[in-house]
C-alpha cells in the first residue's frame, strides 16, 4: 500500500454539511426529473382511465333514457274494421302491420294527438320552411321578401314565382357569358323585370345595372339566383309533407304487440289508449342537443327542418317525455336502436358463467388437488404443470379457434348445428380458458394451508383423501372462491372466442328457457358479443350510445364480481 | 480476557467526531432508542455491543440518517458531526452519507463488475475528473480494503462472484472509495467464516488511521479486539460507554457485567 | 315408452337411486358392529352412490355423443349412390377432373346430409308442437312437407326432394330406436350398480378404499384436462393447417404479399392455371400485427415501467393505495371496451389532430396501437413492480448508504439489477399484444383484401387476429373452404409465435428469480 495511491482516494474535503454543493443540487435535480416522469406516467394513465370511464358513462347513461312521444293511441275502427259489424280475430291478424297498424293506428293517432294539443301540423311545418326561405332571401339582400311571399298567397305559389325569377336569372347568367350581346341584354332585362314583378325593386335595378362586360360573374356575385332557388326549394317542401314524414318521427315499436292485443281482445276497437311511443333514434340526437338541426351536417340523417319544427312543437306542448329504457334489459338485440336490448345477452352470459362455474370449479379444483397433494413428481406431472402455465398465456382467440374446430368437427359428425352459438358451447370454451386461472389460484390457496394441519390430520389416522377433503379444502375454500370469481369475471368480458363459435348473431337470439328445459342448447348471445353487435350497428346513436349503455351494464357486473372477491378475501383472510 | 489479542491504544482520542445528545428513536409506536448520548472520537474504532434487539443497529443507522428511508421512523434529540447538526433541515442526507459511509451485515455487492462496484460512489459524487483518476481511486480503495492483489486481474468480473469475505471487503472498498470521514459497520463479520473475519478485523484496525470507525457487533471478543471505545446498549438504553479496556475489565454497571460474563444476551 | 324415457328423466332417476343408495347403504352398514368394520357406514353409503351413478352417467355421456355420430353414419350409409341429389350433373361431369369430381360429390353429399338433418329438426319441432304424430309423418309426401312445416314456423332450408324425405324418415326411425335403447341401458346400469354395491356392504368390505380410489381417479382425470386441452388445440390448429399448406403451398402462404380470400372450395381451385383464386399471403397480416404491437409496446413499456418505478420507489403509501386499484380496474376492463373506446373516441381524436389527408379513416395502426398500449400499461407495470420488489433491500441500502440519491439508486442499481426480469415482462407484453383481438378488430381496419404492407402509421392495416375473426364469424362454412383452412394456418402461426415468446419470458423471469432466491 503506497501513500501516493492512498492520497488519491482521500481528497480533503472540509465542506460544511449545512450547504448543498453544486453537484449535489444538480444530482437532486436529475433525480426530480425521474420522479416527475414517473408521476407524469401515472397521471397520463389515470387521465386515460378517467377519459375511458367518462366516455362510457357520459354516453351510456343518457342512452339508457329514451325520448317518447305521448300518444293517445286510438284503435280506429276505420282501419281495423273497415267493413263494420262483428270483427273476428283472424281479420285483425290479417291486417298489414305497416299500412294498417303503423300508418293507420300509430300515425293517425299521432296526428290526432298533435291536433288535440293545438298543434297545426301543416302550418307548423310551413312556417318553418317559410322562415328558412326568408332567411335565404334576406341573406342575399332581397329586401321586402316577407311581403313578396305573402303576396303570393300559398307557399306553393310563392315557390313557383320565386323559382321562375331564379330561372330567369340563371338564363340571364347563361346569356351574359354567351357571345350574343343583344340576347344578353334582353335576358338581363327579362330577369330584372321578373324581380321587379315580384316586388324586389331594389334587386331589379341592381340586375338592370349590370354591364355586359362584367358578365355572369357580376350577376352571380349578387347571390340573388341562389337565394331565389333556395327559397323556392324551401317553400316547395310543405306541400310534400305527408303521413310518411310524420310517421318517420316515431318508431311504432309495439305495433306487433298491439295487433296481438287486439287479436286477443277485439272489444278494444274503438277505444283509446294513452301510451309512449319511442321517437326515432336519429331524432333523439336532435332532442338531446347533440345535433343542432342547422345545416346538413347537423341534421339527423333522413330528416328535414319541417319535421324538426314539429318535434319542437311537440316538445313545447309537453308531448315528449324522456323515460328510462326498461325494455333495454329485457328486449333482444335489434338493428333498430329504439327497441334494441340486452335481455338474451344478459341471460346468455349468466348461463355461460353457470357452466364456467360448474365446469371449471369442479375440474379446476380437482386438478389442483391432484397436482398439489397426490401427484408423484414425475415427467407427466411436470408436463401438466408446463401445460397449465402456457395455457394461461395462450391468446384467447386460440380458444375460439379450438371451439370453431370442435364445432366444424361435430358438424361433420352430425350435430354441430345443434350446438353452434349455444351457451353450452360458449361456456365450455370459456371454461377451458378459465381453468388455468382457477388451477393457479387453487394451488396457491392449498399451498398457503400450513403443512402442520395436514400432519395433524394424518397423525390421528385420517387417510390422505380425508385429510384433503376434511381439512385442507375447507381452509383453502376462500382463496379458491376468490380465484374462481376473478376467473369468472375474466370470462364474462371475453369476446373473441365467442365470436368464432356463433354467439354474435344479430337475430334469432331470444330470451333463453330455463337451463333445465334446454336453455343451454338454444341460440344465445353474451354481453360482450352484444356490445360488439351494438358497435357494428349502422346508426351512429346506437354505436355511440347504446353500445356504451351495454358496456356500462357489463362493467357494473364485472365490478360487482370483483368487489365480491375483495370482500371475500378481506373477510376470510387468514394469516398463519 | 488474556487470550484476546490486544491492540495498541494510542489513538488521538481528543477530537470528537460525532456527538449524540438525548437521542430518541421511535418506530411507529415502538420506542426503540431511549435517550442515548454518546461521543464518537475521530480516528478511533468505537464498538456498539449488546444483546439482539437492543437498538445498537438502529442507533448506528441514525448516524448517517439511513433511518430516513423507513417511513414510520422518527428521530429526536441532536446528533452533530464536527459541530453541525446532521438532522438540520438544511442537511442533505445524500451529502451526509458521502461523509459517513456504511458497510452492512450481509455483503451486498451490486450485480455489477468489481470495478463498477467500487467506482459507483466516486462516480455519483463526482470525485474523479478523468478515467485515470477513477482508476486510481478504485485501485487505492481496493488496496486499502486489502483486496487489490486478489482481484486486480479480474476487475471486470461480477462482484457477486467473489467469496463472502471478499464480497465484504469489496463493500468496504466501495465505502472507502467515496472518501468518507466516518465508516459505520453493521455487524460486518456476522455472515463470514473465521478466517475472513480475521482479515476484516485487521483491516478495520488499519482503517482507523484515516477514519472514525463505528462498528456494531454481537461478538464481545470482536469488540475487544478491534475497538478503543465500547458502548453497551440494552433495551434501547445506552448502559455504559467507556474505553474498551474499562468495559471489559472493570464494568461499572451490573448489566454490563452480566452481559460480558454471558448471563444476559 | 320412448316419449317418456329420455335422458333428463333417467338423470332424475339416477339422482333418486343415488340418494336412496346412500341411505340404504349406510343404514345397512350401521347394523354391523362398528368394532369389526373396516369402513364407516357413510363410506359404504358413498360407495353405493358411486356404483349406481358413475357408470350410468359416464355411459349416458358417451351414448349421447355416439348416438349423434351413429345417426350421421347411418344417414350417410342409407343415401342411395344413384340419388340425383348427390350426383354431379352429367353436363358438369365432362369438364371436371377426377379429383374435382370427387370433391364436388363430397360437397354435395355433405350439403345433402345437412339438409336431411335440418329437415329432421324441423319435423321434430312440428311434432313437438302437437301438429302431427310420428305415424302421420311417415305417410307424408315430399311436395307438401315444406309448406306444412313453414306454416308452423319451422325453418326449412333447402328444397325437400322425395329422396331426402325418405332418408329423413329412415334416419328418424333409427334415431328413435337409439334414443330409446340408451336410457334403458343407463337405467339397467344404475340399478345393477345399486344392487351389487348394496350386497357388498359387510364388515370386511373396504368401502373407504374403493371410494377414495374413485375420487383419486377423478382427480387424475381432471388434471389431464390441461393436457387434453393443449392436445385439442394442437390438433385443431395442426390438422387443418397441414391440409392448407399441402393445398396452397407453405411458402406461398408464408411469403405471400397479398391477402384476398375468394371462397374456393378445398380441392377445387377455381382460378386459371389450376390455382386457387383466393390469395392468402401471410406478410401483410403479420406486418399489421407487428406494427400495431410495436406501437403498443412503445406506449406501454415506458409508461408501465415509469409507473412501476414511481410506485415502488417514490410514491407515498396513500398514492399507492389509490393508484394500484385504479390500475387493476384498467387491467380488468374487457378488451372489447378498449376497442370501442378506440373506435369512437381515440380514432376521431387522432384524425382531428393529424388531419384527414394523413389519416383517411378513424381506424389505423395508431388508433389500435395507442389504446392497446394503454391496455398493456397495468400488465407491464404490475410485472415490473414484482420484478423491482424482488431486488433485495440490501441493494437499496448499499446504494443509499454510499450517498446515492433515490433516483441514482433506481437508475444505476435497481433497474440494471432487475433488467432481465423487466425484459421478460416486456416479452410477455409483446405476446399479449400479438394475440390481442378485439381492439384490432374494431380499431385497426377491416379491409378484406390487402396488397403489400402499409407504412403509414395512420393508415388502416389488417392483422392476423382480425382476419381470423372476419372469416370465422357468422355462418361458418366448415373445413370445406380454403379460406377457413388458411385462417387455421394463421392461428397456427399465431399460437407458435406467442408460445415461443411466453416460454422465452418464463425462462428469463425464472432465471432472474433464481439470482436472488
What would the keywords be for this entry?
B: alpha/beta, Rossmann fold, 6-stranded mixed beta sheet, 4-stranded antiparallel beta sheet, 10 helices, globular, disordered N terminus, C: 517 residues, mainly alpha, MetI-like fold, 2 domains, 3 strands, 1% strand
Q: In summary, what is this structure?
A:
The complex is a heterotrimer of chains A (576), B (265) and C (517). Chain A has 576 residues and is mainly alpha-helical. Chain A has 25 helices and three strands.
Q: What do these coordinates show?
A:
The complex is a heterotrimer of chains A (576), B (265) and C (517). Chain A has 576 residues and is mainly α. Chain A has 4 domains: 35-61; 65-114 and 253-324, no CATH class; 122-243; 343-572, MetI-like fold (Orthogonal Bundle). Chain A has 25 helices and 3 strands. Mean pLDDT of chain A is 84; it is low at 1-12. By secondary structure, chain B is an alpha/beta fold. Chain B has helices spanning 56-62, 93-99, 114-125, 131-144, 148-151, 164-176, 194-207, 220-226, 244-249, 254-260, and strands at 16-27, 30-41, 45-49, 73-81, 84-85, 100-103, 182-186, 212-216, 229-234, 237-243. Chain B is built from 10 helices and 10 strands. Chain C folds into 2 domains: 7-223, no CATH class; 279-516, MetI-like fold, CATH 1.10.3720.10. In chain C, strands 2-1-3 form a 3-stranded antiparallel sheet, covered by helices on one side. In chain C, helix 2 runs antiparallel to helix 7 (162-200), helix 9 (225-248) packs across helix 19 (482-516) and helix 13 (335-354) crosses helix 14. Chain C is flat. At the A-C interface, helix 2, helix 17, helix 18, helix 19 and helix 20 of A face helix 2, helix 4, helix 8, helix 9 and helix 11 of C.
Task: Tell me the layout of helices and strands.
The complex is a heterotrimer of chains A (576), B (265) and C (517).
Chain A: H1 3-9, H2 22-63, E1 65-74, H3 77-80, H4 89-93, H5 97-116, H6 121-139, H7 145-151, H8 155-177, H9 181-198, H10 201-208, H11 215-222, H12 224-240, H13 243-247, H14 255-264, E2 272-278, H15 281-287, H16 305-316, E3 320-324, H17 343-374, H18 379-391, H19 396-413, H20 423-448, H21 451-459, H22 464-492, H23 496-500, H24 527-535, H25 540-572
Chain B: E1 16-27, E2 30-41, E3 45-49, H1 56-62, E4 73-81, E5 84-85, H2 93-99, E6 100-103, H3 114-125, H4 131-144, H5 148-151, H6 164-176, E7 182-186, H7 194-207, E8 212-216, H8 220-226, E9 229-234, E10 237-243, H9 244-249, H10 254-260
Parallel strand pairs in B: 3-8, 3-9, 6-7, 7-8
Antiparallel strand pairs in B: 1-2, 1-4, 4-5, 9-10
Chain C: H1 7-30, H2 41-78, H3 90-94, H4 98-128, H5 134-138, H6 142-151, H7 162-200, H8 207-223, H9 225-248, H10 250-255, E1 258-260, E2 279-280, H11 283-314, H12 317-332, H13 335-354, H14 365-390, H15 393-401, H16 406-435, H17 438-443, E3 450-451, H18 464-472, H19 482-516
Antiparallel strand pairs in C: 1-2, 1-3
Helix pairs in contact in C: 1-2, 1-7, 2-7, 2-8, 4-7, 9-19, 11-14, 11-16, 12-14, 13-14, 14-16, 15-16, 16-19, 18-19
Amino acid at each position: 500500500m503506497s501513500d501516493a495511491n492512498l492520497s488519491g482516494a482521500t481528497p480533503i474535503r472540509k465542506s460544511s454539511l449545512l450547504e448543498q454543493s453544486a453537484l449535489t443540487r444538480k444530482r437532486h435535480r436529475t433525480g426530480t426529473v425521474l420522479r416527475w416522469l414517473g408521476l407524469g406516467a401515472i397521471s397520463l394513465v389515470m387521465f386515460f382511465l378517467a377519459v375511458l370511464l367518462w366516455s362510457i358513462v357520459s354516453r351510456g347513461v343518457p342512452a339508457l333514457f329514451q325520448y317518447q312521444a305521448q300518444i293517445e293511441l286510438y284503435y280506429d275502427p276505420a282501419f281495423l274494421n273497415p267493413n263494420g259489424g262483428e270483427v273476428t280475430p283472424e281479420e285483425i291478424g290479417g291486417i298489414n302491420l305497416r299500412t294498417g297498424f303503423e300508418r293507420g293506428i300509430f300515425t293517425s293517432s299521432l296526428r290526432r294527438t298533435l291536433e288535440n294539443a293545438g298543434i297545426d301540423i301543416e302550418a307548423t311545418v310551413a312556417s318553418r320552411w317559410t322562415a328558412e326561405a326568408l332567411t335565404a332571401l334576406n341573406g342575399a339582400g332581397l329586401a321586402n321578401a316577407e311581403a313578396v311571399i305573402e303576396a303570393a298567397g300559398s307557399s306553393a305559389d310563392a315557390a313557383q314565382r320565386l323559382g321562375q325569377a331564379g330561372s330567369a336569372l340563371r338564363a340571364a347568367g347563361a346569356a351574359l357569358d354567351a357571345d350574343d350581346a343583344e340576347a344578353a341584354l334582353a335576358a338581363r332585362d327579362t330577369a330584372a323585370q321578373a324581380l321587379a314583378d315580384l316586388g324586389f325593386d331594389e334587386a331589379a335595378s341592381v340586375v338592370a345595372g349590370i354591364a355586359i362586360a362584367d358578365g355572369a360573374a357580376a350577376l352571380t356575385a349578387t347571390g340573388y339566383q341562389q337565394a331565389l332557388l333556395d327559397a323556392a326549394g324551401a317553400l316547395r317542401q310543405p306541400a310534400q309533407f305527408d303521413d310518411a314524414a310524420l310517421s318517420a318521427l316515431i318508431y311504432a315499436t309495439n305495433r306487433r304487440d298491439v295487433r296481438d292485443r287486439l287479436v286477443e281482445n277485439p272489444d278494444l276497437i274503438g277505444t283509446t289508449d294513452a301510451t309512449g311511443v319511442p321517437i326515432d333514434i336519429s331524432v333523439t340526437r336532435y332532442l338531446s342537443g347533440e345535433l343542432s338541426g342547422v345545416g346538413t351536417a347537423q341534421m339527423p340523417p333522413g330528416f328535414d327542418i319541417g319535421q324538426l319544427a314539429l318535434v319542437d312543437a311537440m316538445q313545447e306542448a309537453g308531448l315528449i317525455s324522456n323515460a328510462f329504457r326498461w325494455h333495454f334489459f329485457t328486449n333482444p338485440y335489434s338493428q333498430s336502436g329504439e327497441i334494441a336490448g340486452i335481455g338474451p345477452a344478459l341471460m346468455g352470459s349468466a348461463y355461460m358463467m353457470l357452466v364456467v362455474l360448474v365446469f371449471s370449479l369442479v375440474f379446476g379444483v380437482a386438478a389442483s388437488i391432484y397436482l398439489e397433494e397426490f401427484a408423484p413428481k414425475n415427467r407427466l406431472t411436470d408436463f401438466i404443470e408446463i401445460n397449465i402455465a402456457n395455457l394461461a398465456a395462450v391468446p384467447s382467440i386460440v380458444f375460439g379457434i379450438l371451439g370453431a374446430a370442435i364445432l366444424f368437427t361435430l358438424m361433420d359428425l352430425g350435430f354441430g348445428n345443434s350446438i353452434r352459438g349455444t351457451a353450452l358451447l360458449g361456456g365450455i370454451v370459456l371454461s377451458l380458458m378459465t381453468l388455468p386461472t382457477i388451477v393457479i389460484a387453487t394451488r396457491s390457496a392449498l399451498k398457503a394451508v400450513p403443512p402442520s394441519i395436514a400432519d395433524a390430520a394424518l397423525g390421528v389416522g385420517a387417510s390422505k383423501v380425508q385429510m384433503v377433503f376434511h381439512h385442507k379444502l375447507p381452509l383453502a375454500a376462500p382463496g379458491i372462491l376468490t380465484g374462481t370469481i376473478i376467473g369468472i369475471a375474466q370470462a364474462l368480458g371475453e369476446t373473441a372466442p365467442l365470436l368464432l363459435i356463433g354467439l354474435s348473431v344479430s337475430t334469432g337470439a331470444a330470451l333463453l328457457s330455463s337451463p333445465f328445459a334446454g336453455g343451454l342448447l338454444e341460440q344465445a348471445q353474451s354481453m360482450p358479443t352484444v356490445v360488439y353487435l351494438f358497435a357494428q350497428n349502422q346508426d351512429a346513436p346506437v354505436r355511440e350510445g347504446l353500445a356504451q349503455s351495454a358496456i356500462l351494464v357489463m362493467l357494473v357486473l364485472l365490478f360487482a364480481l370483483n368487489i365480491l372477491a375483495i370482500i371475500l378475501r378481506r373477510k376470510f383472510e387468514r394469516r398463519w | 480476557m488474556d487470550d484476546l489479542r490486544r491492540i495498541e491504544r494510542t489513538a488521538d482520542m481528543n477530537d470528537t467526531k460525532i456527538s449524540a445528545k438525548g437521542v430518541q428513536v421511535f418506530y411507529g409506536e415502538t420506542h426503540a432508542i431511549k435517550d442515548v448520548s454518546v461521543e464518537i472520537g475521530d480516528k478511533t474504532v468505537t464498538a456498539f455491543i449488546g444483546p439482539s434487539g437492543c437498538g445498537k443497529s438502529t442507533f448506528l443507522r441514525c448516524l448517517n440518517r439511513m433511518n430516513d428511508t423507513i417511513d414510520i421512523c422518527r428521530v429526536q434529540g441532536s446528533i452533530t458531526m464536527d459541530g453541525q447538526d446532521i438532522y438540520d433541515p438544511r442537511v442533505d442526507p445524500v451529502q451526509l452519507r458521502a461523509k459517513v459511509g456504511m458497510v452492512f451485515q450481509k455483503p451486498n455487492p451490486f450485480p455489477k463488475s468489481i470495478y463498477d462496484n467500487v467506482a459507483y460512489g466516486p462516480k455519483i459524487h463526482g470525485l474523479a475528473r478523468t478515467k485515470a483518476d477513477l482508476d486510481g481511486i478504485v485501485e487505492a480503495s481496493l488496496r486499502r480494503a486489502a483486496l487489490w492483489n486478489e482481484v486486480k486481474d479480474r476487475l471486470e468480473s461480477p462482484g457477486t462472484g467473489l467469496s463472502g469475505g471478499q464480497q465484504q471487503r469489496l463493500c468496504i472498498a466501495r465505502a472507502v472509495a467515496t472518501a468518507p470521514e466516518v465508516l459505520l459497520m453493521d455487524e460486518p463479520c456476522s455472515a463470514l467464516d473465521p478466517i475472513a473475519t480475521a482479515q476484516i478485523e485487521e483491516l478495520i484496525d488499519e482503517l482507523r488511521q484515516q477514519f472514525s470507525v463505528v462498528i456494531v457487533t454481537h461478538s464481545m471478543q470482536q469488540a475487544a479486539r478491534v475497538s478503543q471505545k465500547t458502548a453497551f446498549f440494552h433495551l434501547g438504553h445506552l448502559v455504559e460507554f467507556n474505553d474498551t479496556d474499562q468495559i471489559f475489565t472493570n464494568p461499572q454497571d451490573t448489566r454490563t457485567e452480566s452481559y460480558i460474563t454471558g448471563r444476559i444476551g | 315408452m320412448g316419449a317418456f324415457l329420455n335422458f333428463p328423466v333417467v338423470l332424475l332417476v339416477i339422482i333418486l337411486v343415488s340418494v336412496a343408495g346412500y341411505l340404504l347403504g349406510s343404514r345397512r352398514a350401521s347394523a354391523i358392529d362398528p368394532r369389526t368394520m373396516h369402513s364407516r357406514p357413510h363410506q359404504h353409503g358413498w360407495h353405493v352412490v358411486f356404483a349406481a351413478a358413475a357408470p350410468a352417467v359416464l355411459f349416458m355421456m358417451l351414448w349421447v355423443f355416439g348416438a349423434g355420430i351413429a345417426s350421421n353414419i347411418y344417414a350417410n350409409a342409407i343415401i342411395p349412390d344413384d340419388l340425383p341429389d348427390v350426383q354431379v350433373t352429367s353436363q358438369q361431369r365432362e369438364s371436371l377432373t377426377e379429383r374435382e369430381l370427387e370433391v364436388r360429390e363430397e360437397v354435395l353429399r355433405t350439403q345433402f346430409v345437412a339438409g336431411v338433418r335440418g329437415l329432421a329438426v324441423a319435423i321434430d319441432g312440428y311434432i313437438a308442437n302437437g301438429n302431427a304424430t310420428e305415424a302421420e309423418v311417415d305417410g307424408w309426401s315430399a311436395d307438401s312437407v315444406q309448406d306444412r312445416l313453414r306454416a308452423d314456423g319451422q325453418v326449412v332450408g333447402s328444397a325437400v326432394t322425395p329422396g331426402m324425405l325418405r332418408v329423413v324418415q329412415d334416419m328418424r326411425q333409427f334415431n328413435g330406436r337409439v334414443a330409446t335403447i340408451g336410457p334403458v341401458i343407463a337405467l339397467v346400469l344404475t340399478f345393477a350398480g345399486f344392487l351389487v354395491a348394496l350386497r357388498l356392504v359387510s364388515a370386511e368390505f373396504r368401502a373407504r378404499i374403493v371410494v377414495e380410489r374413485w375420487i383419486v381417479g377423478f382427480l387424475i382425470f381432471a388434471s389431464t384436462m390441461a393436457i387434453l386441452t393443449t392436445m385439442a388445440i394442437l390438433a385443431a390448429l395442426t390438422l387443418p393447417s397441414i391440409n392448407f399448406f399441402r393445398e396452397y403451398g407453405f411458402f406461398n402462404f408464408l411469403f405471400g404479399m397479398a391477402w384476398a380470400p375468394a371462397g374456393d372450395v378445398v380441392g377445387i381451385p377455381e382460378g386459371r392455371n389450376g390455382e386457387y383464386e383466393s390469395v392468402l399471403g401471410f406478410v401483410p397480416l403479420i406486418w399489421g400485427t407487428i406494427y400495431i404491437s410495436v406501437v403498443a409496446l412503445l406506449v406501454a413499456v415506458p409508461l408501465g415501467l415509469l409507473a412501476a418505478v414511481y410506485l415502488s420507489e417514490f410514491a407515498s403509501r396513500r398514492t399507492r393505495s389509490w393508484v394500484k386499484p385504479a390500475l387493476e380496474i384498467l387491467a380488468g376492463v374487457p378488451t372489447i371496451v378498449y376497442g370501442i373506446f378506440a373506435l369512437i373516441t381515440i380514432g376521431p381524436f387522432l384524425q382531428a389532430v393529424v388531419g384527414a389527408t394523413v389519416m383517411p379513416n378513424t381506424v389505423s395502426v395508431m388508433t389500435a396501437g395507442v389504446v392497446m398500449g394503454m391496455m398493456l400499461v397495468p400488465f407491464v407495470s404490475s410485472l415490473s413492480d414484482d420484478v423491482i420488489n424482488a431486488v433485495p433491500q440490501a441493494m437499496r441500502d448499499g446504494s443509499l448508504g454510499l450517498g446515492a440519491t433515490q433516483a441514482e439508486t433506481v437508475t444505476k442499481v435497481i433497474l440494471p439489477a432487475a433488467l432481465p426480469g423487466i425484459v421478460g415482462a416486456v416479452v410477455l407484453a409483446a405476446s399479449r399484444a400479438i394475440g390481442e383481438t378485439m381492439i384490432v378488430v374494431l380499431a385497426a381496419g377491416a379491409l378484406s383484401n390487402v396488397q403489400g404492407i402499409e407504412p403509414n402509421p395512420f393508415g388502416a392495416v389488417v392483422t392476423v387476429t382480425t382476419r381470423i375473426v372476419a372469416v370465422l364469424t357468422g355462418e361458418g362454412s366448415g373445413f370445406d373452404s380454403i379460406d377457413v383452412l388458411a385462417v387455421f394456418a394463421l392461428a397456427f402461426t399465431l399460437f407458435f409465435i406467442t408460445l415461443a415468446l411466453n416460454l422465452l419470458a418464463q425462462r428469463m423471469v425464472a432465471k432472474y428469480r433464481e439470482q436472488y432466491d
